[in-house]
Amino acid sequence: MKSMIININNNTSCDNHSAFAACFAEFCTIPLDTAKVRLQLQRKILATEGVSLPKYRGLLGTVATIAREEGLAALWKGITAGLHRQFIYGGLRIGLYEPVKTFLVGSDFVGDIPLYQKILAALLTGAMAIVIANPTDLVKVRLQAEGKLPAGVPGRYAGALDAYFTIVRQEGLGALWTGLGPNIARNAIINAAELASYDQVKQTILQIPGFMDSAFHSFCIGSPIDVVKSRMMGDSSYKNTLDCFIKTLKNEGFFAFYKGFLPNFGRLGSWNVIMFLTLEQVKKIVTGQAYYD
After folding, report:
1. Contact present, 139 and 230 (Cβ < 8 Å)
2. With 159 labelled, which of 30, 75, 141, 278 sits at a CA distance of 20 to 30 A?
3. Domain 2-147+157-287 in CATH: superfamily?
């Protein structure tokens, strides 16, 4: 019983550490995420504003356009919902990774845990965490998607909390889980690429070219899913995941699924560097131990 209480306390502490690290990384990198969302929703923006040329071009161009037209603070649109998301999703996916990995191999397992078990554990924790955190992702995307409005025209939502209540009131409680299917697929894949690769590299203290390539490939697979997820969350006209996928492919072609790829890749790369470094330092300060022993 004493051992069980210690394990529960350790897992709770780990959740707190990972949630803090995830929130800090989110705050530092959300401008890149905002640029990604605007690029992914470019077609919708063009149709709405009736502009013939793309409004946003590339990572730096998109960031510059947003800052020039809407002010520097606009790059942090959705930060409140983003912090909600990372506190829940980031805390759960990272905090549950070790206990789920142990559960899969058994508490009596001795030796190095196989890579496929690490990948499976990360897939499961990523999927479980985003099911709970999906409403925060939806609100963040909707707030980020809103560009410059004409003078005197109020925003769609007054803020994150207002967005939650407005969506429920106007669209129903289930609307908070719009885009859940592609969101589960996307976050499970990326979580597996992030956590399993980090775990494996740190455990072996080696750079494994083949594995690192597969992590990049996992991100490439995740990009189309992320575009579909953002569009479903930003535009309620799509019936379901398949409808969004088919319409995007038919109207804009295959490469539409890689809109925002570079800012997304750059954001996730910098996000992970900041998050894991912060997590390691917090763990060392609080417990004197590295995250993965």
Report:
1. no
2. 278
3. Mitochondrial carrier domain (1.50.40.10)
> Mind listing the pLDDT tens digit for each residue in 166-200?
999 999 999 999 989 999 998 898 888 778 777 77
94 contact partners, CB below 8 Å, separation of at least 6: 14, 15, 18, 21, 22, 125, 195, 279
CA 179 – CA 228 distance, rounded (Å): 8
Q: What's the rounded Cα separation, in Å, for the pair 236 and 251?
A: 17
Cα of first residue to Cα of last residue in the chain, in angstroms, is 24
* DSSP for residue 57: -
Rg (CA), the chain: 20
Structure tokens at 40: 């992914």
Q: What is the DSSP letter of 172?
A: -
Token pair for residue 79? 């930060």
Which tokens is 89 given?
């999703």
- Residue 115, both tokens: 């890579």
Predicted structure pTM score: 0.65
The answer to whether the beta carbons of residues 33 and 226 sit under 8 Å apart is no
Establish how many alpha carbons lie within 13 A of residue 61's alpha carbon, considering only the half-sphere containing its beta carbon.
8
* 8 Å CB contact between 247 and 169: no
Q: Per-domain residue ranges for the chain?
A: 2-147+157-287
Please name the residues in contact with 102: beta carbons below 8 A apart, sequence gap of 6 or more.
109
Distance CA 91, CA 84 (A): 10
| Token pair listed for 11 | 């897992």
Cα dihedral sign for 179, 142, 30, 261?
positive
Question: How many residues are given for the chain?
Answer: 293
Is 163 a residue whose pLDDT tops 50?
Answer: yes
